[in-house]
Design a protein that fits this description.
The protein has no helices and 34 strands. By secondary structure, the protein is an all-beta fold.
């Protein structure tokens, strides 16, 4: 057998076999003592006792993924993850002390939230980032406050939980998808179903949080959240939740807001998480109303590099450098957004959800909204665009 398993062992009992030369299979009773160190470099199948541990267990691989599976849930005292291409959990893994994110994301199944990475009692973690996080579900046991190191794709989007008492159990995950048509839920959460006409709801992302204890949460946003579509000012942002009882989105408040419209956080008022299916960021539903019309035209663009109508030039925009420009297609889908617009739009989309991002938009009629925050004025107009021609 040519396959080599590098397992570093100091004073502990173990029973493993090589399974198809692709995995370490525990079917016995492993216990790591306080000076123990075990390093796994391939898949692990845990069908035996592996939960009375001290010391450190590490998962390391720079070339391939590693999957932890089996019928028995392991619990590690200290653990570290350095798996560049992803560490996949197919059964729950518990951490008693410290989890160290070194390299790679931890993936858990979004369709089976009971399988997750579980932070127990006094456990904590270090090293979280856009590239080292939990893409899926994380849970806590015996904790009153915790920041879930959640994210999706290449973005860290934590949820901060501050409860009135210790949670016996709580779990959370982040989803960068439209709540009107979620992939991982058997129902939709209509963003037009709101408790009053003044409330707006994000179409870009949401969080799922289970918990029985009255709590406050803090959600974050970044430039891929497009919160400028929800509010003109950060003070208008709030946490909103889809109420099981009311079957609509309700305002959960904003006891604290920090940051700007590109990056920031908002903290809710107190609520019981289990009363809400999903949570996200909301704002005011008056964004499309004209506060006071200013003299701006409809525009025609032919971005073909001939020096004529190649850019969307809004005269006087320099008088309000604290501005926001959004451009929508005829279906109302955002295709371009920029804080501090400087007459640089040349027909290329810059929104992740648009298939033609970094490519020219199709010919057609678009509409734009420009908000001039310095003078508290707003205007909506039309933009007629011909096909972009690459030079």
């Amino acid at each position: 057998m040519n396959t080599k398993i590098r397992i570093h062992i100091f004073s502990f009992l173990f029973t493993v076999i090589v399974y198809g030369q692709n995995a370490v299979h525990n079917y016995g009773n492993i216990q790591i003592h306080d000076t123990g160190l075990v390093g796994f470099h391939m898949n692990v199948i845990n069908d035996g006792a592996f939960n009375q541990n001290l010391g450190l267990v590490g998962f390391y691989n720079t070339d391939n993924t590693i999957t932890l599976s089996g019928t028995s849930n392991p619990v590690f005292y200290d653990a570290e993850i350095a798996v560049d291409n992803g560490f996949y959990l197919e059964n729950t893994m518990g951490v008693l002390n410290n989890l160290n994110f070194i390299a790679g994301t931890i993936f858990t199944p979004r369709t089976a939230s009971e399988t997750n990475l579980s932070f127990l009692s006094n456990s904590f973690y270090i090293g979280e980032s856009d590239n080292t996080k939990i893409d899926g579900y994380a849970s806590i046991q015996g904790k009153q406050s915790f920041t879930f190191p959640l994210g999706m794709d290449d973005r860290l989007r934590p949820l901060v939980l501050e409860s009135n008492a210790i949670n016996d159990y709580a779990k959370s995950a982040y989803f960068y998808e439209d709540p009107n048509s979620p992939v991982y839920f058997g129902t939709s959460f209509d963003t037009n179903a709101v408790e009053d006409e003044f409330l707006s709801v994000s179409n870009y992302e949401f969080w799922h949080l289970d918990g029985e204890i009255p709590s406050r949460i803090t959600l974050s946003w970044d430039d891929e959240s497009f919160v400028s579509l929800l509010a003109e000012f950060t003070s208008d942002l709030k946490v909103v939740g889809w109420s099981f009882a009311e079957r609509r989105w309700v305002n959960l408040g904003n006891t604290n807001v920090e940051g700007n419209l590109d990056n920031g956080t908002v903290t809710s008022e107190e609520f019981i998480p289990n009363e809400y299916a999903v949570l996200t960021i909301g704002g005011n539903n008056d964004l499309l109303e004209t506060l006071e019309n200013i003299e701006l035209d409809n525009y025609y663009m032919t971005p073909n590099g001939d020096g004529i109508n190649d850019f969307l030039v809004i005269e006087g925009i320099e008088n309000s450098p604290n501005n926001t420009l959004q451009i929508f297609n005829r279906y109302g889908i955002l295709v371009y957004s920029k804080q501090g617009y400087d007459n640089s739009f040349d027909g290329i989309a810059n929104v992740t959800s648009v298939l033609s991002r970094n490519k020219g938009l199709a010919s057609g009629i678009y509409f734009y909204i420009v908000t001039l925050n310095d003078i508290k004025k707003k205007h909506q107009g039309y933009l007629y665009l011909t096909s972009y021609t690459q030079n």
